[in-house]
Amino acid sequence: MATFQQLIKPAQPTAKDIKSRRWIYIPYDRYTDRTGPLTEQAPEATGIVIVESTAKGLRRPYHKKKLVVLISNMRHFALEQAAKGVKVLYHFSLTSHGQALLELQQARKLPPLTVMTPAERELRLDLAQAESQGLQLTYAEDTTWASTPKDFLDTYGPYKSGKQYVMDRFYRRMRQKTEVLMANAKPIGGQFSFDAANRNPYKNQVPIPTPPTYPPDAITQEVIDMVEATYGHHFGSIENFDLPCTQADCDAMWRFALEQLLPTFGPYEDAMRDDHLQLFHSKTSVLLNLGRILAMDLIRDVEKASNEGRIPLGSAEGFIRQLLGWREFMRHLHEQTDGYRLLRGHIPDEARQVNQEVSPDQTAEAKQAYAPPKKQADPYAGATPSALGAALPLPAVYWGVKSGLHCMDTVVEQVVQEGWSHHITRLMVLSNLANLCGFSPRELTDWFWFAYVDAYDWVVETNVLGMATYADGGLTATKPYVSGAAYINRMSNYCGHCQYDPKKSLGEGSCPFTSLYWTFLERNEAVLGNNFRMQMPYNTLHKKSPQELVQLRTRAAEAVAHLQSFKRPKY
Q1: pLDDT tens figures, 397-429
Q2: Rounded to two decimals, what is the model's pTM?
Q3: All domains of the chain, ordered by start, with CATH?
Q4: Angle between helices 121-132 and 97-108 (to 10 degrees)
């Protein structure tokens, strides 16, 4: 820390600086001077406050690389602003951000601080608590986003419990509003989405560029040493850290993705490999979620490259849909539902009624699973919807204990090492297994929250409780995203390196995913049986003999018992 403290010391403000400058609090996920309050006056008229909070770092066993990339970017951003003439109050605190700001404002006689409305609900609550004790803040719009709350409300109206929210409507509206990939008010290429064409497995059809690395400088190395000393008991490996931590490196990472990866991204965005873990994914989500790069800048870059013929339309649209569509949609839904806390029950009324009518033997479980959420004393406590009644504890495989399932072991090992894996491994391996086995959606959400470098509450809660596990009963997805071994075998090379045979559902060497899939359908037929998108698998299920169903249940139970037999690490 000595190097950073020495470098930042000249930027410390005098009493005159505090009186004469506009003071802006920089949240831990908004390191940008390309939009927002920092752009509204000259650096010589600006002061910023940054809090490095040990209490926040200890709230969860955050992946050590997440802490490094966040704190190192925080320190580098402070130095970058100092180099431009901004005065910097960089404050190390054992307390929360809000409490630290309150104490700092009182001790240094700071004027009211301007802050872009924080992205994380947790930080908004923390600041609100400090405001109730006297902290003076003025909130500015968070212009790092590509849309506004009004865009969401204009699409769907005010949030209403039981209503279904399909992302496609919002995405189309945003395409029309921004005119991205549009011509004469119509989508270029004749359709808004090319998702159906972007589902090819990767079998070495084209070479994969080698991503650049960003070795730690002296400041990042100090952060690595500090994280190992302070948070060494946390999840994940800190070895071989190579994520960007300066603005220059963040921009370079995006340029590489734009020029080298995105031209081939689309067709293989759903592919999975154990020998090419990143494939053509940009890995820029961590930088986006820190504010180091801005969504609309990326969207415009990709649109321009597509218009110039440097990126095929399918690849460009697939990437833009993730940013302009899904990312924005999920953050709005999180805000509108207060992180799912405003759900009247855990599933929409229609699904609750089906469950009660079709499955009276599950009434006691249903009453507990579908009851309106109780008012919680802890405002930070996460919402716990579980439309399918899933409640088993998350097993040790998610902490890196080898299970023998090559797909799971491969993906979890990547998460342990990198704090990252791409979106299909998150959905169709990690979340798929949890869904099929009936593991707690809340526990899975919390695991994603601390295990991934790009995870924040607005990202994980709607994505995992919604799309990934169907815990919200269909608020964001028209059906659960579940599959047996066939999908994993088709879209990856995992199965060819596994002890289990994806083509066998029963008997020695059979892949547990398949038996788990059929028992998942059987177990949840009361809720899912009338879903029009589930009719084909249910028709197949109903053709199975009673004897085979018993065998499938037995094999699935063995798989769950095996996963739960390992001791889970504690943090």
Answers
A1: 999 999 999 999 999 999 999 999 999 999 999
A2: 0.93
A3: 2-140 (3.40.50.620), 149-336 (1.25.40.80), 349-564 (1.10.579.10)
A4: 40
